[in-house]
């Protein structure tokens, strides 16, 4: 490239890449990367703060140094020691799928929300509000994860934060989705509810949660799901989902 062309390109780059006042310019240097955009904070879509108030709906978790926590740690060690490769693989799959796809197999018949837009629209609201409820509860009760209490406990997800054990977000999702799905497809309720319990147990198999964490998730999910199913705002979406599932043969009711 001729020198005049190089100088012209450099001048153009200086115009296009403004820099902070007083900062030195390095010829050929790439512009500074823009800071990563923060994830938008989720807000409740159908429920109120009262509906998800963890102080009202949940008892506090056992203290880290309590006999109850020591007993739960002992139980967790036994569960981890007894887990088979197959059950551990299932727990890892469950860890990676914190969404309603955890229920597709037990519902059967090729069930997928992508093929059911009305049901998907309802579940989007359900998943949003249960996630907000779970996150708020974790902030209310910042309990240490099992592996943060006992470093010998393994964990499926190294990215978990240490003070987010109570309640379990995965179990909260599973129980809430199960209650709503069972309401929409009552014929499939036993299989859906059994899957929710097994999905919650995966959190212990993974070493990610105490048993009382998933029990709290069940209690909170029951309250949140009941409020969602009773929400006047959601009645049109619930009716549309029922009609869609009936038309697709997933329920006769």
Give a description of the structure.
There is one protein chain. This protein is mainly alpha-helical. It has one domain (54-247): Up-down Bundle (Vanadium-containing Chloroperoxidase, domain 1), CATH 1.20.144. It is 57% helix and 0% strand. The protein is built from eleven helices and no strands. Helix 4 (85-96) packs across helix 9 (189-205), helix 6 packs across helix 11 and helix 8 packs antiparallel against helix 9 (189-205). The longest helix has 24 residues, at 117-140. The radius of gyration is 24 Å and the shape is globular. The N and C termini lie far apart (75 Å). Mean pLDDT is 88; it is low at 1-34.
Short description:
57% of the residues lie in helices and 0% in strands. The chain has 253 residues and is an all-alpha fold. It has a single domain, classed as Vanadium-containing Chloroperoxidase, domain 1 (Up-down Bundle).
CATH architecture: Up-down Bundle
Number of strands: 0
The CATH topology comes to Vanadium-containing Chloroperoxidase, domain 1
Oligomerization category of the chains in this entry: single chain
**Number of domains as seen in the coordinates:** 1
Principal-axes shape call: globular
- List SSEs in N-to-C order: HHHHHHHHHHH
User: How widely separated are the two ends?
Assistant: 75 Å
Largest sheet: none
Q: Hey, roughly how much beta strand do the residues contain?
A: under 5%
CATH level-four homologous superfamily name: Phosphatidic acid phosphatase type 2/haloperoxidase
Mean pLDDT: 88
Evaluate the radius of gyration.
24 Å
Percent of residues in helices: 55-70%
Low-pLDDT residue intervals, each spanning 5 or more residues: 1-34
The class by helix and strand makeup works out as mainly alpha
What is the CATH domain class? Mainly Alpha
Number of helical segments with 4 or more residues: 11
